[in-house]
Structures are given as C-alpha cells and as structure tokens.
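ok so i was messing around last nite and threw this chain in just to see what happens. nothing serious, just curious
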Amino acid sequence: MSEERKVVKLDEQRYVEVVSERYNPLVKRLELTCVISHFGSGTPSRKELREVLSKVYGKPPENIYVRSIVSEYGVGKSLAKVNIYDSRERATAFEPEYIIKRHAS
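result:
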C-alpha cells in the first residue's frame, strides 16, 4: 500500500513533506509528521507552517497546532509534529496549555 506523500513549497528554497498522516477519530484530529527541508536558510516559524498546512488541508490556522519542530545542526532538515483538529473546541480540550499559549501570538 503505497501512498503519495504531500509536498508543499514554502518558498524557493524551502518545502514541507508530509511523511505520516493519521486520523484519530476519538480525539477528532489529524496527526501529521512532516520533514521540512530548508537548506541555506533558517527553520520556518510555526506560523509559516500553520498557514501553509491551512491551505493544503482546508482548515483554519486556529485549528492547527505545531507540537514540535526539531532541527539538526547544519543539516538543513527539521522534523515537525503537527495536529490538525476538526474544531477549535476539540483543540482546547486536548492540547496542553503551553502549546495553546505558543500559538496565541
């Protein structure tokens, strides 16, 4: 069972590849694992990632929470864990308070 991976361009040098996508029906969220390639530039911000994924998945940015972005020094690749909720109410019920505060700004 081979699925095509989603690849989204952030700009000329950076792109996001969704390597894992799983829907959690109990929590009503889509759980993503993404590899961000950003050779020669900095790691994209959580805000940039939310906006791009919002366009691809058709959900408002308020329903998208970037749990973590882990970068390796000098490699130009980062691993991101992202949750996309069906509704804002579900997000506030399940996401930790510190994650919600990170996305408030």
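not much to say yet. The chain has a mean pLDDT of 90.
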